[in-house]
Amino acid sequence: MKGRHLQFGAVALEFIMLFPFVVAMLYGAAVYGLTFFAQYRMQNAVDTAVATALYLDRSAYEESEALSAAVTQRANTALAGLVAELPQSLRNLNTDAACSLEAVAGIEMLRCQLVYNNYAENPIAPALDFGMLGAFPPLPAQLDVNARAAF
């Protein structure tokens, strides 16, 4: 009878020692899930903006500069509208001139980029601070996404 009572104490001690690790793993999984889902939503917005900009009637533009300006303007307008539909925590992204043209190996590319800079001050999911041990889970300093397409 006495040995059985000691065994219950061992199980309780194991539970007390392992429970914080199990909770930490669940919390870390939830925080990373929210962070990666936010990055996915941002990536989807820039992908859609690039795709939307390429649906232009090229025959309506005689000069390549006019076509370039129209593509860039359409991409920035689409991206601003798509960012407005994101969750409230992601709506303060700077979309001014987020889409621009760049030359890559002689090919003109449309590039749209979003950067969530204030991740440390305004995280999507809060990290726990353990003083000298640091923050848990470790999170990125910023979230950035981009999409490119040749036109």
TrEMBL record:
Residues 9-49 form the TadE-like domain. The keyword Membrane applies. The chain crosses the membrane at residues 12-34. Keywords: Membrane, Transmembrane, Transmembrane helix. It comes from the Bacteria. InterPro entries: TadE-like_dom (IPR012495). This is TadE-like domain-containing protein.
